[in-house]
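User: Hi! Is it possible to get a structure for several chains at once, not just one? Here's what I have:
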Amino acid sequence: MSSTTYTLPIGPLHVALEEPMYFDIQVEGETVRSVELAAGHVHRGMEALAMQRNYFQNVTLVERVCSLCSNSHPATYCMAVENLSGLIVPERAMYLRVIADEVKRIASHLFNVGIMAHLTGFDSLFMHAMEVREIMQDAKEGVYGNRMNLGQCIIGGCRRDIDDSTAPFLLGQLELLKPQLDELYGVFERDPLIRTRTQGIGLLSFEEAKRHAVVGPVARASGVAYDLRRKAPYAAYADLDFKVQTDTKGDVHSRALLRLREAVQSVKIVEQCLRQLPGGPINTREVPVIPPGEAVARSEAPRGEVFYYLRSDGTDTPQRLKWRVPTYMNWEALQVMLASCQVADIALIVNSIDPCISCTER
Amino acid sequence: MLPFLKIMLRNLVLGPSTDPFPFAPAKTHENFRGCAVHDPEKCILCGICRHVCAAGAIQIRASQDGSGMQYSLWHNSCVFCGMCAHYCPTGALTMSNNWHLAHTGAEMFSNCISNLIHFGECAQCGAKIQPRPQAIIDTLGVRSPDRFLLCPKCKRQSIGRNVAQPRSIHRQENL
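Assistant: Yes, the chains can be modeled jointly so their relative placement is included. Here is the combined structure:
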């Protein structure tokens, strides 16, 4: 090691990081030369916990893996259990699951772009983005009963119906959100401060995105049009009309804008769902019989593809439950994105993959 | 800063967007999942709430005098998922929208639901059976109200008599 380089430790607890993660960064002057990632600070042994709880209890457990994708986890877990037991979910429940998923996606994306504004030092924009997000938080609380853990998915369908009392409320909140979201997009697109701080940094080319098999908005901002809602439609996504957002720039700025565009699409999806919502039951009243065997399920969480593997030995507890979350794929690509960047941009670039450490380490 | 200036001025005019809690009541939605409420009048001790509770907040134990079961739900262990209320077949467990659960450290273990639920009695032999409150007889026991109040043994005998009698008459007619 020459005298011009030194090691800069960032984390596990650091002002710029939202969750504990350790970066060992070799710096030459102000420029990053190499990055080592060390994980394991929020490991809670959730996969082991899942093997000690029955199928019903695990719905609640996997919902608490992560707060921002707390609907994607139980929904995918329930899909895996339903695949194994051959349970047919009623059509209305399929739509209700999509609504819950998209409402969460809007809130998650707004949170991420808000944090980006915060990391650029633009705190009044951060506050404003969080306040726009509050419209969705309010909708979640009013419709489902909680601001983060919706508790909507159960094995065999959904728990809370969207009826005459909650549908107008949800639509009203979306009407409130739409102009604010457009306005926010304009600010993020045009604001000179945001642009100078985020454009052209954290570059991930199409080839590198493919090589690292990144998923979610990170992949789509680099031109990989991979969206599970379109590639392998689950729930009611096959009947819904929406545009998969892509970009070719692959920098921090384009990822933030892509998330905002996806939020706009999500609003449209929720509106469509509310229009097309079929009648009928919202869950199968029967308690499923779970035979011995294996099953997988995957879905598009706000950060990308989440994958569940379930193995059952016929008892009421899973023999093995494993999940792979999008951040696991995306954080390896940080090696590429952080190469030759400035020390001051590290936090911005890390945030641009929307890392969910608690999901990944569980 | 320019595109944001308009928003900033507007937010300034609109004033604070937070609730003035604790000086005024905070806005709480009707659907909010707050602390659980247990109605001992409707509970039949089926135990599904305990089965689905991921937090292990629910305990059902035999009471010391053997007259019933002690039902406990610790609010401090509860994660407010509402699975118990969803799966409760009689509506004995519900989630209220009360979120005022702050208490002193001394009340840590008393901050729970604790109800003694008496066993029912078999209408024939007086053996202990699951509770049969009136609210449950009216909803679940409508098909055969008499048999609903019997213990499994008396129920078997009663069903046996019912099955045996009409069939023997039927056979005689055929002969």
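Residues 29-99+108-118 of chain B form a domain with the Alpha-Beta Plaits fold (CATH 3.30.70.3270). The mean pLDDT of chain B is 84.

User: Great, thank you!
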